[in-house]
Amino acid sequence: MPRDIAPLTSALEDTTPGEQSDVYSLLAAWNQSIETALDRGGWSRLQEIRGQYLEEVIDFVDTAATTDGIDWAFLEECADAYPPGVGDHHCSSILANVVARCVIRTRIREGVDAIPTWALEYLADVTVEDDSEWAWESTAAFGWAVGHPEIAVLDRTLERAESGDESWAMGILEHATFADPEAGIDLLERLLDSPDVVEDLLFVSCLHAPFEQNFPDFPQYWVPDTELDYHVEVSDDLHERLLAIIGQSIDPGRLRHFDGSYRFDLERAADEYGPGNDA
Q1: Under a CB-based contact definition with an 8 Å cutoff, are residues 79 and 99 in contact?
Q2: For residue 75, what pLDDT is reported?
Q3: pLDDT tens-digit profile of 118-134?
Q4: Burial of 191 from C-beta contacts in 10 A (0-12 / 13-18 / 19+)
């Protein structure tokens, strides 16, 4: 057995599913082993370890956090021990995944008001630079908090897009549309109307998945439809409104040129709702 992952493999052997005290040791062992692997083998070794052990570690943390309902206090303790955006540990790829799952679960089972504010702030603070792209992708679950009483998801997403963080906004747009298609399309309209937002059709492409499936692809290693009863419902009227927004906001020449690359009828959006059309 490679010596760089000895603390991790030992901790995995000693971890009992659902035992929260074991998870604290497991996270510390993960962090230590990843740091050692990076020092000795670089990025390729890190990827190798992630591919072999990350799913198992996430499962242990997720089980410990959800054995008797979601234990937000436990997750907050873990997040406080390994905060996002600091760049001095390697646990965000685990914690962001589990927090994201629990945000989605809570939205569906209990409603948006039950999502703790700290969990949303945690997701919003994860960065690619300090926490890895893998962790960052899970933070799109922030979009499931659309309508939250304390966090203005749409406003914050627009602000970050206008500040240059359009990639983050794309993930939030997709997840917000899964959670509430009408709110997601509202957000798309605000993004396309903003003079400070550069992308247009890439934002439109973010709405493909909510029109074709019930859950997003991130966070990874999770099959939500095995535990959650949820269906995305997009009415014909809402679909038509989406086409109107696209037609009114994007150059008709671009829409016709890229029509075949999108699930939506961009040509019809241009013809029926483009400039000079009173539809």
Answers
A1: yes
A2: 98
A3: 999 999 999 999 999 98
A4: buried
